[in-house]
Amino acid sequence: ESHQMYLEQQFYKKLENLILFINNDLKKDKRKMIIIISPQLLDLKSGNSENYQKFFKKLSRKIYCLDLTKNINNYGNYKKLYFDDIYGGHFNKFGNKYISEIILEYLKNKNII
Q1: 91 and 83 in contact (C-beta within 8 Å)?
Q2: pTM of whole model > 0.85?
Q3: pLDDT tens column, 21-48
C-alpha cells in the first residue's frame, strides 16, 4: 500500500508540501535538509521501489535527496547488508559501513562538508 501512495497525487503532494515546509523552516536558521532514502529489504525483494524513487528524484531538484536504492542493488548480494529479521529494515555493521561511505561521498560532492 505504501508504494501505491506515491502514485496518488493527494498523498504524494501532501508529503512533498510537508518536506518543503520543513526545508524552508530550516533555511531560516541557515541549515540544510538532507533526505536519505534507505530501502528496507522487502522493498528490494519486491521490486516495488520505482514509485518512491521517482518521487524523490523529482524532489531532489528542490532539496538534497540521496536515494540509496541503486547503490544497495549494485552491491551484489545486498542481503548481506541487513540484519536477518522478519522485516529486514535495519543495516548490520557491514551495511552501515557501506552506506556511510556513500553518504560521505555524497556530502563531499554536494559541498555540504
Answers
A1: yes
A2: yes
A3: 999 999 999 999 999 999 988 888 887 7
